[in-house]
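[job 4417] fold queue: 2 targets
>>> target A
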Amino acid sequence: MRAPIGDFETAVPAPDCLDELTAPVADAVRHWRGGVPADRIVWVDTDPRWADTAVFVEHYGRDLLERSANCVVVAGKRGGATTLAACLVLSTTRVDVNGVVRRQLGARKASFASMETATGETGMEYGGITPVGLPAGWPVLIDAAVADLPYVLVGSGRRRGKLLVPGKALAELPGAVVLEGLGTA
């Protein structure tokens, strides 16, 4: 199969390569619901040596720069309670943690979660966190620019490999909230 974006040697429908995914991501693909069929989610093999964005797009395709999204875990705190959430923004932007995220979570303070928290709570590798397969009940905040793309490059749960997911499918994930201005320049 040919990848819908980028120049990848190996591209496989995600349901056909569950062994390449972490357990929570594989479970999410296995039990996929929504208007976009699971076989439209494509796993592509990528080398972790080329993980740096500039090197990555040079190797796998310049068109990926505007079609890649970063997924980060944030912690919103209010009183003694902490709410963990995922934020998905274009890789050319930053997450507006102290504005949009804090307000959306109803938190007094919001910050990026520690690496230990992010990996421990998601069951995914640092640098490969994806919005597919996050813990039940988590808000998944998605910048509108990401949801509008035909295909978006996101993590696969591991450092090796990525997922190409239709933006519409990301907007249908459990807990998904599409927000204008989540990603800032």
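>>> target B
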Amino acid sequence: MLDINIIREKPEWVKEQVAKRNDSAPIDEILAADARRREILHEVEELRRQRNESSKQIGRWLGSLKKMQASLRKAEAGQDVGTAVADLRAQLTELQANAEKAKNDTRAIGNRIAKLEEELRQVEAARHEHMRWVPNIPHESAPVGPDETHNIFHKAQGAPEPQFDFEPRPHWELGPELDIIDFERGVKLSGSRFYLLKGLGARMQHALIQFMLDFHTEQHGYTEVYPPFIVRSRCFEAAGQLPKFYDNIYRDAEEDFMLLGTAEIALTNVHRDEILDEADLPIKYVAYTPCFRREKMSAGKDVRGIKRGHQFDKVEMYQFVRPDKSYETIEQMKQHAIDICDALGFRYRLVDLCTGDIGFSMAKTYDIEIWAAGCQEWLEVSSISNAETFQARRANVKFRPTEGGKAQFVHTLNASGLALPRVMIGIIENYQQADGSVVVPEVLRPYMGGVAVIR
């Protein structure tokens, strides 16, 4: 979520930045609600001052009333004091009337405050709802463009492009022949975009997950986290998935539970409503989770094979860092993802996403794509993103500077490290042999009981 002060101070600039994302946001509605909120707060503050003053005045009058009543009782008990009694009675009547009027005025002020406080709740709720639809401001280094055609594709790196003395085949042919992927029974169980991994296919999937977790914890210094795969909707909101992507989320029909679309959602909320010590930063987590996405936004895309499914596995890196370190950190996390590509022997390329293709919560994003020789495609296996304070504001995650001072919001970053099943596609298609077998990358063999070839 953006800082409301930025919207107050530079509304036109914010609109320009949102437009760079080929998006829109209710900035004028936010400003109107915010202005009314401040008007109400000012009026309520003044009414409370009046009520307090009126209450003090009532107290003074009640004190005078008690003294006058005592004087009247003494006068009524004396001789030849008719005039004094009459005067005291008149003064007493006037004082009682003033006190009663003050009570009524105070009661009216209280009623007005109650109405304003109810309006304030409604205005704040409206402002919050509008704020939820404002995307992050893209970083100045992000290429400006309306859609993915304006992304910047960097020169391919890593292993040489695989060379074959035969026509390489796609994984949707090799997988069933090797009996490691079963499309028909996956569809029978759950419908389109589901499949079964069998035998050494299932074993390779688990081998990849464990290999990547071990690599990131041992080589890159991350702490492994095994989060719940079902979390409450507020976790999705904090990560920036709600309300924009509600239709893409699998959710419980009766309880406030949603299935993770990425471990990023859970990891964003690990330190929700906490103030961290600066000395503990950066905090580096890595997690494996299955990911569930309805894929409504990708209808008709990548329908063959296992490139895009409603359920897939992913290893995710996540960091909480000081604001001045986040753009140094995104480069480090990019390298951490590349290290996995290098270890698996992939040809890969870096993509610098333009403003129109960056995710809702992110200020800067790189993609890493690997070459798949069978389907002749570049496949995204990692997105590396910096959300700056956007997610931290929503989750209320701050750090306290070592030298003291006010707590500040952390910056949060995430990166796929890597995403399956496209890594599986890369192995099956790039390591295939003329007889239809697939060589297992050397780094995975210890995780597969020494299996070197899938036949």
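[job 4417] complete. Note on B: The first strand starts at residue 152 and ends at 153.
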